[in-house]
Design brief:
With 341 residues, the chain is α/β, with parallel strands linked by helices. Helix content is 35%, strand content 13%. An 8-stranded parallel β-sheet has the order 4-1-5-10-9-6-7-8, with helices on both faces. The structure holds zinc ion. The site of zinc ion (ZN) has 7 residues, from loops.
């Protein structure tokens, strides 16, 4: 297996964030990727590659130029205005989306962010850009004939939409990989399976009307868990994409057996769609004890999920999303990836 990684993710130094002079802690920290990388090295899972630069074009097949320009410039603009700050947080949100895009930076922050938990730091754009490059390079490996490639992406991506960031996500790595596969091979059908604990609202929005992409997500019931406003079972896609958005909201404390039942339905759906490629949004926050999760899945359960997904036999791009239980990320990462080797 080819594994794509760059230590530029550390530029998104979320373990050193200050808000109004006080430490501000988020669970999505650089140590996550380092724990995964060390475990992958130790278990000899595959060859670790540094991504090459595909530039902005493949990112702009998913995100708008205005949004990308905003993300890549807002830190400098903000800290010029407020030199005492080291992280950019929105303050006012475009609640229930008015559709108006203001000109002022403070207004733009609430226009492009849907939550407060994604600080923009000095190196956030660089880290997000290279995270996207990891997913593009992983897609390239699969295009070259690898059965599976794994993008060790950080920051994660599935909450980021066309022009929206939040939930630790800025650029939607899984969507960028998907569009890249379709750009290289026209008329390509891609299935995205999202097994992160949280619904991938960004991915859902990007492909909601797209007949060439099936999005299947198993996640916590949004009535009670983040991202709250998306992920219900009656969100089934629209227009030509009607029926190609499939959500399995699951109750808190979901166990291995219940999860695997829902997964079985998702895999049947993917098989029926008959895609050329599979992209997996891989969130290990489904494991019991995850500080931002709430399911009760065991390591054996995770291994079984991986076995079932690998059993589809599709060329697969694995894209890292959540997973915050640092002292189990190593075992869970290895357990999942080994099923694909
Ligand atoms: Zn998550």
């Amino acid at each position: 297996m080819k594994i794509l990684y760059t230590d530029l993710h550390k530029r998104h130094a979320t373990d050193q964030v200050l808000f109004e002079g006080h430490p501000y802690s988020v669970e999505e920290i650089p140590a996550r990727a380092e724990v995964l990388l060390d475990a992958i090295r130790e278990a000899h899972i595959g060859t670790i590659l540094t991504p090459t630069d595909h530039g902005l074009d493949p990112i702009l097949r998913v995100h708008t130029i205005d949004y990308v320009t905003f993300l890549s410039t807002v830190y400098e603009a903000y800290t010029t205005l407020y030199p005492q700050e080291t992280a950019v947080f929105p303050g006012t949100f475009a609640t229930r989306y008015t559709g108006r895009r203001p000109k002022a930076m403070l207004g733009l922050l609430g226009y492009y962010a849907f939550g407060w938990g994604s600080p923009i730091l000095e190196g956030t754009w660089e880290a997000a850009y290279w995270s996207a490059q990891c997913s593009l390079n992983a897609a390239d490996e699969v295009l070259k004939g690898e059965q599976t490639a794994y993008a060790l992406t950080r920051p994660p991506g599935h909450h980021a939409s066309i022009d929206l960031y939040g939930g630790f996500c800025y650029l939607n790595n899984a969507a960028i990989a998907t569009r890249h596969l379709q750009h290289v091979h026209k008329d390509t059908k891609v299935a995205i399976l999202d097994i992160d604990f949280h619904h991938g609202n960004g991915t859902q929005m990007i492909f909601y009307a797209d007949p060439s992409v099936l999005y299947c997500s198993l996640h916590a019931d949004p009535n009670y868990d983040y991202p709250y406003y998306w992920g219900f079972s009656d969100e089934r896609g629209m227009e030509a994409g009607e029926g190609l958005n499939c959500n399995w909201p699951l109750p808190r404390d979901t166990s291995d057996a219940e999860y695997l039942c829902a997964l079985d339905e998702a895999l049947i759906r993917i098989h029926a769609f008959d895609p050329h490629y599979l992209v997996v949004s891989l969130g290990m926050d489904i494991l019991e004890g995850d500080p931002v999760g709430g399911f009760m899945l065991s390591l054996e359960g995770l291994q079984e999920i991986a076995k079932q997904v690998a059993g589809l036999g599709l060329p697969t791009v694995l894209v890292q999303e959540g997973g915050y239980l640092l002292d189990r990320l190593d075992d869970s990462g290895v357990a999942f990836l080994q099923a694909f080797t």
